[in-house]
Amino acid sequence: MAPPMSANEFLAALRREGATVVEVDGWRNHNRAGHGLWGPVNGVMIHHSATSGTDSTVRLCWNGYDELPGPLCHGVIAKDGAIHLVGCGRANHAGGGDGDVLKAVIAEKRLPPVRWADTDGNVHFYGFECVNRGDGEDPWPQDQLLAVEQVAAAICRHHGWTERSVIGHLEWRPGKSDPVGFSMEWLRERVRERLK
């Protein structure tokens, strides 16, 4: 468990990891403050956006939609590897998920199968939407995959976490499939190697 990073700490952590960062105007104060807690934080959650196009995905993740106001994540990871920061603080990305999974993340143990949605993940996870349709056919360019690795490692390094603090939405909430196109074990292994 850790207090969330400030906007300056977040930006510095990403840049130290070599990430290409795009600061969307107003991201430092864009959050769901007043709609639930933000922190203590315990991990990083990776999503695919189920969209295509960087600009439209950034707008969607900034604004949200009628049923779910933005920000819908902390950053949007584009196909070219640029990380567009859209929020700092509580974001509507994780939703309800399995409290046993959260316990495993906190203990940095192997995750149990996801069974129910009894815990608010927006409190506990940094979230990143990766521009990908999630249909199993939309490619994942190497620059984008490197950026996913950099984001996850940057946050883990700042907080002193291992790769076990990185999870996919599908590992958190029943019925979710994201990210489609790579396995979370593969990503965790890349993060583990990067943190050495």
From TrEMBL:
- Residue ranges of domain N-acetylmuramoyl-L-alanine amidase in the record: 27-180
* Pfam families named among the record's database cross-references: Amidase_2
Q: Name one GO molecular function term.
A: N-acetylmuramoyl-L-alanine amidase activity
UniProt superkingdom: Bacteria
In its UniProt record, which GO terms are filed under biological process? peptidoglycan catabolic process
* Name used for this protein in its record: N-acetylmuramoyl-L-alanine amidase
Query: Organism source for this protein?
Result: Streptomyces telluris
Species classification: Bacteria, Bacillati, Actinomycetota, Actinomycetes, Kitasatosporales
